């Protein structure tokens, strides 16, 4: 009995550690899709790119991934900023259809471009830290790299939240979401704000990728599963709600972890999507959202 | 479709059948099979994605239902052709489920729901190893034992012709005009009495049935299938890209799209091996930015502008 309880507790804690990274990915998507209504099907590909940037920084200058993820964030921010101006701005205000296809195409280009450069092989980095565990009592132990990434994700996530809710840039982005026509009349440079926000959202995915590098296998298609997952988080958290997406990320992490414990790892993703379909059909406004989808 | 157009279409169909007499290489047959198969799938997708304007990115669900249905019903002891029929019914059932849930959603949520549904099916097929064989895969019975590659090529031509004929018929019918009205403005269509929910569902059911036939053919040609191959997002994307590239909501768009995409991907396969999806991505971005109506749609627009006639309904292009 006690053992079962401990293993459940362990699973919940592990889920929260994973969930913090999910939350970061989801918050990026919440900014892009929830607030700006850009349907970004390349989110997972951006995350994958963040992993590769961190990987290259680790391999060549030997930069620790827990610093390297900042480099990934920077590269991805610039990329996102450029992608907005070059690709998304021309079709802004047109149908979702086009955004979906464009970002889908962009994702394929990034994934297969990386595959051309690095090959399809799996990579994994080696650090002495990876095998370290922190013990809580006799039964519970937490993996050190996950704990570190949890802490960093918390800081970055709070930073992102403050940026969106309490700075001029964030207010401007939300103002555009509320009324695309009134915002420019209030002196907001719509495209500049959206390009910056898109860059930030993509950077969040890239940083999450960097933090995932030490604990994940690296291969070109690694980001694919995160695209749909990030939509799941945005919808579950409620459209337009940054904090909702963060909570949804933690929930998803715990649900996956418990699913793995009781039904097996292979069902975790299926449960994610089943939850998604249930939320879409039963409560499309999500946990915290007030808007109907 | 005017009479000369109809004659031209029948002529093309006969020509395509006659190709089977001239060609002898198995490789050529397989490439041609792929072109016609995806032309048929693109036409099927076009009913939902093009004419009705509902972006489905989960057609792999029906494709996979066709392939797996054929394999599993046959494994259970049913005759091949009955298994194929039941597989199509299975796909239609899935379409009813997906449509019931996701047609209440609009815009990106519909697309997301279709992907999620297909992914759930893929994962279920992967994990229910007792029934589907999981990642090990399952054997699919050959639909044609005699002159294998040639028969499959002919079957793909016939399937394309059926899908084309259905599209012609639908695009000229009252039902087809309802679908286009829903695409242009769903609220207005509702306000003039179009039962949008029922029309969308019917379009999806027909589309799913055709897609399942395509999936059954595909699986049967390969003789062996695994979930990641036939229920993959890649299949869903490829089907949508074929139609979008040629021109969603046009009659011949999916045909043109399939010829271009499959030929290009065959060439790039030799150049880039596994990374040949790159060409899909590039084509998608180019189409969205520069050919928003697809190749056929954009051409038709140009011609129309030159002719300075009254606007023609898009379906006639």
Task: Describe the protein in words.
The complex is a heterodimer of chains A (293) and B (317). Chain A has 293 residues and is an all-alpha fold. Chain A is built from eleven helices and two strands, in the order ααααββααααααα. Chain A has a two-stranded antiparallel ribbon with strand order 1-2. In chain A, helix 1 (2-35) crosses helix 9, helix 2 packs across helix 8 and helix 9 (224-237) crosses helix 10 (242-262). Chain A has helices at residues 2-35, 43-59, 65-88, 96-118, 144-166, 168-178, 182-185, 190-212, 224-237, 242-262, 268-282, and strands at 133-136, 140-143. Chain B is an all-alpha fold and 317 residues long. Chain B is built from 15 helices and two strands. Chain B has a two-stranded antiparallel sheet. The longest helix of chain B is centred in the middle third of the chain and has 27 residues, at 196-222. Chain B is globular and about 55 Å long. The A-B interface holds A 33, 39, 87, 90-91, 96-102, 104-113, 115-116, 120, 224, 228, 231-232, 235, 264, 266-267, 269-270, 273-274, 276-277, 280-281, 284, 293 and B 53, 55, 57, 101-102, 104-109, 111-113, 115-117, 119-120, 123-124, 126-127, 233, 237, 240, 244, 272, 274-278, 280-285, 287-289, 292.
Residues in helices of chain A, as a percent range: over 70%
Note the gap between the termini of chain B: 9 Å
Strand arrangement, major sheet of chain A = 1-2
Calculate Rg of chain A over CA atoms: 19 Å
- Strand pairing plus helix content of chain B: what structural class? mainly alpha
Largest sheet of chain A: 2 strands, antiparallel
Question: How does the SSE layout of this entry go?
Answer:
The complex is a heterodimer of chains A (about 290) and B (about 325).
Chain A: H1 2-35, H2 43-59, H3 65-88, H4 96-118, E1 133-136, E2 140-143, H5 144-166, H6 168-178, H7 182-185, H8 190-212, H9 224-237, H10 242-262, H11 268-282
Antiparallel strand pairs in A: 1-2
Helix pairs in contact in A: 1-5, 1-8, 1-9, 1-10, 2-3, 2-4, 2-8, 2-9, 3-8, 5-6, 5-8, 6-8, 9-10, 9-11, 10-11
Chain B: H1 3-22, H2 26-51, H3 60-75, H4 80-102, H5 108-127, H6 129-132, E1 138-139, H7 148-172, H8 174-184, H9 186-191, H10 196-222, E2 224-225, H11 227-230, H12 233-246, H13 253-272, H14 277-290, H15 294-307
């Amino acid at each position: 009995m006690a053992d079962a309880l401990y293993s459940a507790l362990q699973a919940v804690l592990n889920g929260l550690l994973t969930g913090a990274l999910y939350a970061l990915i989801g918050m990026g998507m919440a900014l892009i899709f929830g607030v700006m209504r850009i349907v970004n099907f390349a989110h997972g590909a951006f995350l994958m790119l963040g992993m590769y940037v961190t990987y290259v920084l680790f391999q060549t200058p030997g930069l620790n991934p827990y610093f390297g993820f900042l480099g990934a964030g920077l590269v991805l921010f610039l990329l996102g900023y450029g992608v907005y101006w070059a690709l998304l701005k021309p079709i802004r205000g047109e149908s979702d259809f086009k955004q979906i296809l464009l970002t889908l195409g962009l994702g394929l280009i990034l994934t297969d471009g990386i595959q051309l450069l690095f090959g399809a092989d799996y990579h994994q980095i080696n650090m002495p830290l990876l095998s370290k565990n922190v013990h809580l009592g006799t039964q519970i132990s937490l993996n050190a790299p996950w704990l570190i990434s949890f802490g960093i994700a918390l800081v970055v996530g709070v930073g992102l939240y403050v940026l969106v809710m309490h700075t001029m840039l964030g207010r401007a982005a939300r103002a555009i979401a509320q009324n695309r026509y009134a915002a420019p009349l209030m002196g907001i440079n719509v495209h500049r704000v959206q390009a910056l926000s898109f860059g930030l959202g993509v950077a969040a995915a890239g940083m999450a990728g960097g933090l995932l590098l030490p604990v994940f296998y690296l291969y070109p298609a690694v980001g694919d599963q995160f695209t749909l997952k990030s939509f799941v988080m945005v919808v579950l958290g409620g459209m337009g709600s940054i904090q909702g997406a963060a909570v949804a990320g933690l929930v998803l992490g715990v649900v996956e972890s418990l699913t793995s414990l009781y039904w097996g790892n292979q069902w975790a993703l299926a449960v994610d999507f089943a939850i998604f379909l249930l939320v879409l059909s039963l409560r499309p406004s999500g946990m915290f959202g007030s808007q109907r989808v | 479709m005017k009479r000369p157009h109809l004659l031209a279409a029948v002529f093309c169909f006969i020509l395509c059948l006659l190709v089977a007499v001239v060609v002898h290489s198995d490789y050529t047959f397989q490439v041609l099979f792929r072109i016609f198969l995806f032309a048929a799938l693109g036409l099927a997708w076009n009913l939902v994605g093009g004419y009705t304007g509902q972006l489905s990115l989960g057609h792999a669900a029906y494709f996979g239902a066709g392939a797996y249905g054929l394999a599993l019903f046959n494994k259970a002891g049913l005759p091949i052709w009955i298994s194929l029929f039941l597989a199509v019914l299975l796909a239609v059932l899935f379409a009813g489920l997906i449509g019931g849930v996701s047609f209440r959603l609009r815009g990106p949520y519909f697309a997301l729901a279709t992907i999620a549904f297909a992914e759930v099916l893929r994962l279920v097929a992967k994990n229910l190893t007792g029934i589907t064989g999981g990642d090990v895969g399952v054997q699919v019975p050959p639909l044609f034992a005699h002159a294998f590659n040639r028969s499959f090529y002919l079957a793909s031509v016939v399937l394309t012709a059926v899908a084309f004929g259905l599209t012609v018929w639908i695009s000229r019918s009252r039902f087809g005009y309802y679908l286009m009205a829903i695409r242009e403005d769903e609220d207005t269509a509702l306000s003039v009495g179009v039962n949008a929910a029922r029309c969308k569902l019917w379009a999806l059911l027909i589309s799913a049935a055709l897609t399942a036939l395509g999936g059954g053919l595909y699986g049967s040609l390969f003789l062996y299938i695994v979930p990641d191959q036939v229920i993959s997002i890649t299949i869903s994307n490829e089907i949508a890209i074929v139609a979008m590239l040629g021109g969603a909501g046009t009659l011949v768009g999916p045909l043109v799209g399939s010829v271009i995409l499959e030929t290009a991907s065959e060439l790039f396969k030799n150049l880039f091996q596994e990374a040949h999806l790159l060409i899909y991505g590039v084509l998608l971005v180019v189409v969205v930015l520069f050919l928003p109506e697809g190749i056929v749609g954009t051409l038709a627009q140009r011609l129309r502008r030159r002719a300075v006639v009254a606007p023609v309904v898009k379906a006639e292009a």
